[in-house]
Write the structure tokens for this entry.
Amino acid sequence: MTDGPDRPDPPLPALPDRYRVGALIRSTPVVRMHRGYDEQVDRPVRVTFLRPDHAGDPAHRVLFDSTVAVAVELTHPAVVAVYDVKIEDAGAPGDRWVVGELVDAPTLDEFIVDSELGRHWPHVVLGLARQLANALQAAHAEGIVHGNLGPSTVFLEQTTVGLRVRVDEFGPQPADLAFPLDPAMAKAMWHTFAEQIVYPSPEQRAGRAPTRRSDVYGFGCALAALILLDPVERADDPLSDALARIAARAMSERPVARQNSFVTVLTELDRIETVDDGGGGDDPDSAAGQSPTEVLSFAPPTGPAQRDTGSRPRAQRTRHRRSRRGAVTAVAVAVMIAAVAGFGWANSGVAPRSASVIIPSVAGQTVSDATAALTRIGIGVAGQVSRDDGAVAAGLVTQTDPAAGSQVTTGQTVTLVISTGQHVIAVPQLQGLDLAAARDLLASNRLEAGEIVERDGLNQAGMVLESSPAYGASLGIGGRIDLVVSSGDQRVPGDLVGQAGAAAAQALASAGLSPQVVREKRSDAATDVVVAVSPPTGSSVPLGSIVTITISEWAPPPSSPQPTASPSQTTDPTPSATPRVRDQ
């Protein structure tokens, strides 16, 4: 939804001076999103305002606040970041805004695959699906449901290491919009939120609140959209077929028929990797020894449609989204029919039996022992997948899929998850990054920031100066790295008193401080010698601060007054008349 050409843009609310607000990106029933620029840290941003016409409406304010709370709470490399927030209850335009990361990239609804990328597209899709599933698994682990997931809320950002998934527009959480004493307002908020959802799950279309399996449905829509982007006609391609089966299951009408979590989705994707040869078959350009998720470094697409929906006519954008949504649904239906006809699921071909069993825990057992334990109670083993696990020795079983405690029909098969032991990760180069970028880089490498210590110096505030362990050291998954970052302050150099004025001023300038000279006449110091410093040496002050040095100008001491003789001490200048007697 955008403001029509016959409706002039309302005036922009005032923001702090550090932000410049530019062109409208797009508008929804709740917010207006603009391009912006943060002059203080020199980076482009996205500025989101509560629509001025809803500033006084309590339902829209609570909906905005709930959405912002989710975005602030969730920090993940694949989730669009929030930098600054203002929420006040003045009931006036401009009392609610958010400044966040500007992802200048197309969504799945807008992305175009070029011919070079298309050669490897199924392998690229596998890697992108893992990125998206990992992001949603992290959100669910924090108790957060997206509620608005689909091709319209997933960006594909081109980076130096390939395509990167960025997830945007998390919806409000059901608990945040529960108002038992005011059901009319709760209904109004959910109705307003539902207007923004382009790919609602069947239960959301029926008016129910989103759940984790609603996000699985949105993931299926996104995966189906990625499959549809393939510019190459692929007949009997095992990887494409396997991905399509995962998408079809995720888009099942009944929530119970979908994957029960993104752990299950990731396990299914891992199972594909164990079957796939990992890098393009006979393609001479494929990277030997690389898994499909690693084959992601390609030239950027030739002319992908950038997300600037504010400039696209509303009717055209609506037709585009409806056509893509219809295509996504169509591919899911087609794939499910194909699955019934010939592909089948993991348990296809097993005749239903009335008896059922509970899957026991086989964690910590060898593969042979675990297989024997499962076989004894009528459960088969369909295959194995490997996964890093520092808590379980390499080669032993860590879990099953479905998990222990699940009730299954006798004769059903499970997959064993085998530990590869503690995965060793090299500490990345962090020196020179700002603290936020360093945290993101550590998270993307499955490491964590430990103790943060500030140090004065010439570097800008927040810049990483060193890490411990240092760059290149080996750590396990979840290892903590202590960081030394610049405080943005500098210490006033010592030993300035007694130096020549020019030398002291140069020392201050070299330390990133601004010398200010005050001259003072002194008789106890030679000319051009520093006799005082303010703030005193050793003080910690912000870079660029003024430090006053007092320089002496020698002046003779004032002359002492001559003492005046008393009358009794006055001598008579007249020579004595008494004759001097010479000794005989």
